[in-house]
Amino acid sequence: MIIEKKGMSTSISKLVKDPSSLILVLISFAILCLFVIYPLIYVIALPGATDWTTFFSKSRYGTALLNTVVSSSLSALTATVCGFIYAYSIHYSNIVGKKFFRFIAFLPILAPSVMTGLAFLLLFGRGGMVSQTLKAWFNVELDLYGLPGLWIVQTISYFPLAYMTITGVLRSISPNLEIAAQNLGARGFKLFRTITFKLALPGVINAFLLVAINCFADFGNPKLIGGNYSLLAVEIYGEIINNEPGLASVMGIILVIPALLVFVIQSKLLSKGSYSTITGKPVSGLNRVKTSRKTDILLFIFNSIMTLFILSMFAITILFAFTKNFGRDNTFTLSHITKMVFNPSSPAVLNSLVLSLIASILAVGFALVLAYVVVRKPFPGKKMLDFTAVLPIALPGTFVGLALIVAFSNGPIMLQGSAILIIVAMLLKQMPVGYRGLTASFKQVDKSIEEAATNLGADSRRTLTTIVFPMLQKTIVANFVYAFMKNMNTLSTIVFLITPKWVVAAVSIFNYAETGTYYWAAAVAVGLMGTTLATLGVMKLIFRSKVKIFDF
User: Fold this and answer.
1) Cα distance between residue 364 and residue 370, in whole Å
2) How many separate helices (H) and strands (E) can be counted in the chain?
3) Which residue ranges does UniProt annotate as crossing the membrane (predicted)?
4) Of 19, 189, 237, which Cα lies nearest the Cα of 88?
């Protein structure tokens, strides 16, 4: 019997004998230390005593913190509830139009979250279509600025994220568990409460976590809809504009605390029980327990209301993009699209496309390298590398952007104003998702396949490109699609990093909406969504069955 030697010296010896692996490990450590560890240390060390004193002495900052926690918690709760009900209706009911409802849930992912705020202004703002109709017909003044409007907008913006997270869990629940419970007398709500919901709880908690972090970091919607209801992300932006990086860093650090608390609470809750849904028992031929006729009607009504909100949001944006000034002059025109999308002097949509493609390719490539070395190669510091790789996903995008701008606007490495910093910010926020997915995929592939290639003379680089990549191609493509869509729509992470030369579409939508030129904001939004769809269409033609865009 051959006993494999283990230990730090053995790991280092193996790395030295495999130069390709050694280079990959060193590059991974260097990139994460430079763009994750260094900015975090810099932003934490930057504030002085005066900055901390100023934050805690001014009531407006405390109010902004409280508002952030309240609005984000409410929005995360309602978005998660809506996402769960929507997903439950798809997998557990007999309602008609399930494919249509799946498509509707996908639509908001195409649009930046700030477009929801724009559409809300066009519908329910003081000069919005619904507001004007209510005033003319019923003499009712509609004022939803502040918490009510922000609550609605963030719920609609992030409910698809909750839906996608929960639908995967509901889909994987074994029907035989519910059938067994039904045979023991559990029916209706009792069956749902004791079996279905408990098994789906990890997905529900994870959905709440993801939505809450996005709400904490949301900048565009609070700035457009919040009015006097100030949030920390907006205050951070104001302090960066006022050249107060120390005070902005204090607020960034404070903003991270609620996000980390959400992670701790999630871990505590999930550690208290077992939620296994794959038991190894045969389930083919078993039909899932479906809801009653009355419940089907209620679920259909709920889905229809959500659909109405989402379609109205897209419809009003399209109407403003293709009319001179909808509501005042409804004449059809292509001038807004031509000026905002196809004009070389307005390259926001093109910039978004170029930067997103580059960042997404790099994010997936780096995630592949990280997953490969962490899962397959023994080396000292593996746990630290793994932790650092997933750390950005736990940090609000606003904080990531803040850390990058304060760290690289001074010091030995100056990247402020460059496209590199925007690409890095996009990469950091999307890479952990691909890394986690690829890590799971690597663990499902037998290591002996790669060992056989190594025995035949292939080094790590050749094994990665000729063996590993083809086997994980579907996962890689799926993660690229996700990263590309998120990067095209991102605002909070890069709002501090853009320059007049490198302005992107999401920032343009926000700027035009804030100045009241809604038709230009709508044109950029339509151009952004059209570009995203066209790019995904090209990818579908290239990769065919490897890309499943609407499968949620």
Assistant:
1) 10
2) 27, 2
3) 21-45, 65-88, 100-124, 144-170, 191-213, 247-265, 297-322, 353-375, 387-407, 413-428, 494-513, 519-543
4) 189
Reference 460, options 383, 384, 377; nearest CA is 377
User: What sign does the CA torsion over 423, 429, 435, 438 have?
Assistant: negative
Cα 42 to Cα 47, 69, 353, 400: the distances in Å are 9, 25, 31, 12
From residue 452, how far is each of 447, 459, 462, 546 by CA, in Å? 9, 11, 13, 27
Separation of alpha carbons 347 and 476, rounded Å: 29
Burial zone of 273 (CB within 10 Å; 0-12 exposed, 13-18 middle, 19+ buried): exposed
Token couple for 59:
């009531």
pLDDT in tens, 50-109: 999 999 999 999 999 999 999 999 999 999 999 999 999 998 888 999 999 999 988 888
Give the pTM.
0.85
H helices of 142-282, where?
A: 147-172, 175-183, 188-191, 197-217, 220-225, 232-241, 245-270
Spatial distance between the Cα atoms of 345 and 76, rounded to a whole number of angstroms = 39
Q: At what angle do helices 232-241 and 397-407 cross, to 10 degrees?
A: 20
Residue partners of 497: CB distance under 8 A and separation at least 6:
401, 404, 405, 416, 421, 422, 425
pLDDT tens for 452-493 read 766 767 666 677 677 777 777 888 888 898 899 999 998 889
Tokens of 205: 């908690």
Give the chain's length. 552
Q: Which of 28, 476, 508, 496 has the alpha carbon at shortest distance from 244?
A: 496
How far is the C-alpha of 413 from the C-alpha of 421, rounded, in Å? 11
Which residues are CB-contacts of 139 (< 8 A; sequence separation ≥ 6)? none
Task: Provide the terminal-to-terminal Cα distance of the chain, rounded to the nearest Å.
Answer: 49
CB 490 within 8 A of CB 506: yes
Structure tokens at 72: 């984000």
Q: Are 386 and 374 in contact (CB under 8 A)?
A: yes
Q: Are 398 and 493 contacting, i.e. CB atoms less than 8 angstroms apart?
A: yes
Token pair in block for residue 315: 């419809």
3-state secondary structure 296-346: HHHHHHHHHHHHHHHHHHHHHHHHHHCEEECCCEEEECCHHHHHHHCCCCC
For residue 122, CA distances in Å to 316, 321, 493, 522 come to 7, 12, 25, 10
Kindly report, residue by residue over 225-268, the tens digit of the pLDDT.
988 888 999 999 889 888 899 999 999 999 888 777 776 776 66
Question: Could you read off the pLDDT of 271-282 as tens digits, one per residue?
Answer: 555 444 444 444
Residue found by looking up tokens 């630290």 in the block: 384
